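Risk register update: the risk of archive-format incompatibility is retired. Evidence:
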Amino acid sequence: MSKLLFNITFLSAAFLGAAGIAEAAKPVDYVNPYMGNISHLLKPTYPTVHRPNSMLRVYPRRGDHTESRMHGLPVMVVNHRENTVFDLSATQKPVSELKQVVPTEWDNEAITPYSYKVTVDDHRVDVNFSPAERSAIYSLDFLDHAPAHLILSARGGEIAVKGDTIEGWQATWGNVKVYICMVVDKTPTARGIIRNGDRVDFSATEAKGDDACAILSFPGNSRVNARYGVSLISPEQAARNLQREIPHFDLARVTREGRDAWNDALGRIDIKGGDDNDMAVFYTSLYRCYERPVNISEDGRYFSAADHKVHDDGGRPHYTDDWLWDTYRATHPLRLLIDTRTEEDIINSFVNQADQSRDHWFPTFPSITGDSRRMNCNHGVAVVADAVAKGLGNFDLEKAYEQCRGAIEDKTLAPWSAAPAGWLNEFYAANGYIPALAPGEQETQPDVNGWEKRQPVPVTLGTAYDQWCLSQIARSLGYDVDADRLLEASFNYRNLFNHETSFFHPKDKDGRFIPDFDYRFSGGPGAREFYAENNGWTYRWDVQHNIPDLIALMGGNEKFIANLDRTFNEWLGRSKYEFYAQLPDQTGNVGQFSMANEPSLHIPYLYNYAGAPWKTQKRIRDLIHQWFRNDLMGVPGDEDGGGMSAFVVLSMAGFYPVTPGSPVYAIGSPFFKEATFTLGNGKKFRIIARGCSTDNKYVASMTLNGKRLDSPWFSHADIADGGTLVLEMSDRPVKK
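Archived output:
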């Protein structure tokens, strides 16, 4: 066992020691929450502690793993890797030195998906933590003789302390309130308020605004257990959530239950025959896929930021916090396989959120604080189309269709905007592309974001894909006129294809290609004037829904393959410093290919469609081993709550859904001798890779359910009720 994996397993076992549990490594023991905690350029991953898809998530309050100080102890992350609420400090500093938040050095930290251990306050307070779904428990050992203090800040909100209980609320983005009820297991020697300006007032027990900060004091050399519940509904509901989930102060019990929950979730894919590092990368990536969306139902009710009202959940969990631009590609297709019911509940939740919103548009970036409409296009439609194509239906499809249609046709196509449709939509409908600004032309459209720009190529290509997805839904509902119209519009990507260069090239409103063009660098910061976060080399391949036509546009299989090869070999064009100064999202480079951003994920699989599957097999093996590693820098770019990690999970298992909305999976190169998926219906889908090894990465022959398979893909129907894919592996490409 590798040293790092040994440490992870040892740390997991350490949290079980108090309960006398000793067991062999389970899936959760392979998870390394620190993987990727130091970023290459942008956001790192965070070592998030939570139950699968639970409302309460925490991670240490620091920028990344290199920072030696942290901003108190974590209480709750509201939206994925973004805003937090409440500040908790445990300290034995003198009263005269106390503040509403006590920044502290951290040491002796150990994190698993279900537990958190750290030493704080100049290394004299030992902290252990474990969460349930809407509640959590801290065990705090104050090691000095000096008085101990527990401080909970709800700055800007309200707080009250009475006896052994603190209650309060704090507002977050969108004026959404989060309520808390915290109970300690010891009677405090003193209780009070720390006012703005950091003045302790032990005569007060209630405060609001800048003074909303409670303090409880205890004798030194003592252990204090503090359990708390959170709610989006009310302080009373926070107390009920706490009492229902953690009605005791037994941290070891909560830890055991969290470990069991994670093993149940991760165990839906059973891996055998891989080395320790591959196992760690696989199960860590699968753990990342459970960080979002989150179940915000509380006793059959939920708060919706769409209308700021509390709704009955109808007996189904209500989910939110999902960046669909990232997760539609692989995270949703993965969940559809292993947790069908949850996938249907998530889509049902999004239908309800659209119903509650002002415009009734299907969401694109739903979160606890509302739909922020970030990025470009409206790829929520792909999630619905994929569900329909693969036989799911436990949601109102008629409503979903109308909501998706509205998001595409009634909302502006300008990125990062929720404005109504305007001139850009009219132009697209009439001409089949989004126009770029000509050289020297000034922006006049008010719905275009000044930083994000028009992004005309990805919006044209992405909207064509969205219309293809919508056409599939329309056809399933019997709306053939709509389906035909949308299917025709799904070819609009052709309007920007430059046959002289074989790139998608922006045009101005008069139909002229933008002159003097560089597919690497034209477009300013993030290439946003023409592309989005990535350059023209990435968007050259952004036709997920009609790859055969893209091959034809490029002149056939040989030219298509040559263009793919060149993508992986093309020089950056400038020094790394200059390249990433302009394109910081386009990291993880192999030539012009970027492993670090979601629009690139399907590109290595495109060789399959042009008759060169061995090139896909080699690329997948190389890319994952190059860029996804079991260490602090082991993720090449932003990991958007499963957006990139699901690519790793599915690719390491041996297949990938290149076109969400189409019930087909492309075969790659499995990393394990055997992978067994427990499907949502309880049936098993097994992938057996005979002779699989680092060298034996090429597929020599295949059978699916006992029948010879001659094409490098299979259908969802082939495995929906279970099945077995057997791959004979070789160390040489088989070019049949």
